[in-house]
Amino acid sequence: MEKNHQYKLMVFLTVDIVGMIVLMIFLGLDFSLDKLILSFIIFLLMVGHLVYAYRYYRHKRSTKDLEKIGYHIKKVGNYTFNHFPVLTMVYNDRFEIIWANYYAKQFLADKMIGRKIIDIDQKLYEKMSLRRYSCEIKDKIFDVYHHIELKTLYLVDITERERKIRKFEEKRIVLGYLVLDNLSEAVSDFTDQKRFLFIGRIHSTIMNYMNDRGILIKNFAEGKYLLMMEQWQLNQLIQDKFSILNKIHQESDQFDTNLTISIGIAT
User: Fold this and answer.
1) Angle between helix 231-239 and helix 159-170 axes, rounded to 10 deg
2) What are the backbone angles phi and psi of residue 97, rounded to the nearest 5°?
3) 213 touches 246 (CB < 8 A)
4) What is the pTM of this model?
């Protein structure tokens, strides 16, 4: 098609040159109405040819630019799919992987084409009905963008960001208030010696429990304690199910009484 345009352009330009020469001869030999009309027609043809030539060169230049842009976009797209650090997977109606980029194969499994997503990672498969979610796979945390219509999964590694956020959250200050609820009632029948011994035992149990976990504790009144800790220490208490409650209960049983405590947390 391009060669055909070039051939036409050469013919038109040749005609223009010949027409220009004829026009000059006609006007130079005899200036009559007929020759003036013919010269005008030849002039219009030359103008048409020049307009065609201009449009052809613009078309040719635009086509080359579009071809360059298209090639560049295709090259960038191929590079992005295979080298950009986003795990990309395409699956079929049976949730089998039919294509995966380099990073997906490197992190999940080298031979994953034809395998089901549930075999790659069960947590990833369980959330396939969602379009966007976070998922922890192996030791990494990903933001998952699920294009359901194209059956494509994009996994963006956000591990470093999430770890910084979690580290910041774990450092948040937490205040607590621990109270021996019924201390007066629990020691009402005790002698002074037994009372001091019991309160001392309870106090030591509470202080040791908190100190072992790095929690700052201050006894500001009889049976009342102020607690200060970070969020990660509170998380440990929660995982420990506040075993201090059972320890106090056991100590109370040894003295044949029933002492209970309450703990209030502000976070």
Assistant:
1) 90
2) -70, 125
3) no
4) 0.51
